[in-house]
Amino acid sequence: MNPNPQTLQAASWPTNPFADPFPVEKAGWGMGKKEILIAFRFLVFLAVLVLLFFKDKVGEPFFSPKMLTLLTLYFLSIAGMPALKAATVENNSLLSAIFLADTLFVSVGIYLGGVTDVNLFLIFFTTIFISALSQDVKSVFAIAIVSCSLYAFLQMKATGQAFTSDTEVLVRFPFLFVAASLSGYLAMETKKQKEAHHRLMGMNQILAKQADTSSQKLVETNRKLKALLEYHHCVLASIKTGIMVVRKDGKVRTFNSGARQITGIVEAEVAEKSLEELPESLRMVGDALRRTLEEGKSFVQDHLELKTVRMELIPVTLETSLLRGGNGEVIGAIATFKDMTLLRQMETQLLRSERFVALGEMAAGVAHEIKNPLNAIMGFSKRLSNKLEDPALKKYADIIASEVARIDGIVNEVLDYSRPDQIHPESADINQIMAETIQFLNEKWESAGLTLEQSLSPLLPTVPLDIPKIRQVALNLILNAVQATPTGGKIVIKTRLIEGLVPEAVGGKGEGALFQQLFLQQKMISVSITDTGCGITKENLGKLFHPFFTTKITGTGLGLSICQKIIAAHKGTLDVESELGKGSTFTFYLPLGEE
Ligand code: ADP
């Protein structure tokens, strides 16, 4: 599995993907309809003015009050136009009224100026072209009709005849309509194009909006997907159970950190590998997955042992099942495997302690029965020794007495071991107990030629302890250390206050290690006795706390079992670390209890 789940990249949409790539610039140097209309009308005004001015030059009076009023009114109608709103200019009725007024102005101006004899025909074209601004062919034609009528009226006034037969004049009328048709048609086309452009722009905007929303949704979905993948990754990484997922083609898709912790194999070693290519230590898991894929069945295998890359055998429970997709089709297979070491250890411990309880009860019964005859033998052998004169025979009687005393000692230890774990705690200073024990044994290591090093922490609080029993533990552990260490060796006794879990370095793989794992965050006192003695073999390390296990000729093998029982009765643990030929460290931990 890829440790960094691939994330989908959001498509990099432009802000507006449908924006017009070739925007149409505003026609006429940025002039709108209103400005064009003003300009055209002003041109008409100027044209009429120039025409009349030249007529004036001829010598005839021109600027009559009527004419001036007309010109002023027309000029004002142009000057007032900038105040009009752009929307008002779009109103076709208003535009038609303006065009009509312009045509009338032209005609009346010519009429009042008396310039009908001048060829004014062309000036009507200007009004027709201007009317094309309305982009309405009907109004252009209406203006053409009005223009024709007024031109006819002016002709009539000029010639004094109701009808003219002058072909030069007659031919001008259809020209006006041709101009109206052409400009009207062009205006309509422009309007259509404009409308189409507007529609396109509108659609463009809608599509752009939709695209924006879609890209936002895509980014949001992407974000959610990423968060989901991260969550999924965290869940897989936090599970202590080993999880291995293969796809339908048998290639490894997921190998979580739980699986790594159990097997010691890292994800990169197996990712995308087929079941045949898996490392030896995963062969068993691979086989189970293959069977599941082939037979479509789930398998549960208990009491399996998985060999790790560290060549350790880890007891596991393996389960495999088919992995199905959302629509129920098989997309692969999944294997989960749990490390059962702790459970198996507990099972063994429980079994052993049950056996020991039975053994202890039996031993206690036997010891009790032995005790009375032993006392009798002891008493009679002493009396015999007193009565005998022959020194050789007297010596035999003494040997009987001392051997019986030894048997009595063993019997006492058996009884001690089998007694209920009752303790009578009182507030005690562990440093004081240790110092007294060291003092008591002073002669022992001096005669054995050993050096003693003490490191008793001054920070230790008093703890509820059964003083004689803890003294018995200290005595036994120190005596064992003295017996295991050859002349010139060293014994180190340390007391410390520790907090939290028992540090891994102190914990051994011995019997005590199991109990040690049950210690959670709490304060405790640790007392360790380290020697530079012979050390203990790995094999013996496992049996050390078994009753009657001893490697000494005169040993009972009950010392450590009794020590462990006493420490357990104080809710503490006894642990051992040892290296063959280098020495051993026995440590007992005593919890501080409720503070
Ligand atoms: P005993 O002392 O009667 O043999 P114990 O239960 O005290 O009984 O000890 C059991 C065995 O553990 C010893 O026989 C010895 O082999 C081993 N042992 C205990 N303490 C040490 C030590 N400090 N160094 C090496 N071996 C030890």
Category from helices, strands and their pairing: alpha+beta
Number of helices: 20
Helix content range: 55-70%
Strand proportion: 5-15%
Strand sequence of the main sheet, in spatial order?
2-1-5-4-3
Whole-angstrom Rg: 58 Å
- Mean pLDDT equals 82
Euclidean distance between termini CA atoms: 49 Å
The counted number of beta strands is: 12
- Biggest sheet: strands, sense, closure? 5 strands, antiparallel
Low-confidence segments, ≥5 residues, pLDDT <50? 1-29, 502-519
Anisotropy-based shape: rod-shaped
If you had to describe this structure to a student in words, what would you say it looks like?
By secondary structure, this protein is an alpha+beta fold. 55% of the residues lie in helices and 15% in strands. The chain contains 20 helices and twelve strands. It has helices spanning 27-30, 33-57, 65-79, 86-89, 92-113, 121-131, 137-159, 167-170, 172-238, 257-263, 267-270, 283-295, 341-387, 391-418, 430-440, 442-448, 467-484, 512-516, 538-541, 559-569; strands at residues 242-247, 252-255, 299-307, 313-324, 330-339, 426-428, 451-456, 463-465, 490-499, 523-531, 573-579, 583-591. The chain has a five-stranded antiparallel beta sheet with strand order 2-1-5-4-3, sandwiched between helices. A five-stranded mixed beta sheet has the order 7-9-10-12-11. A hairpin with a 5-residue loop joins strand 4 and strand 5 (330-339). The protein starts with 26 loop residues before the first helix and ends with a strand. It binds adenosine-5'-diphosphate (ADP). Adenosine-5'-diphosphate is lined by residues 476, 480-481, 484, 531, 533-534, 536, 544, 549-552, 555-560, 584.
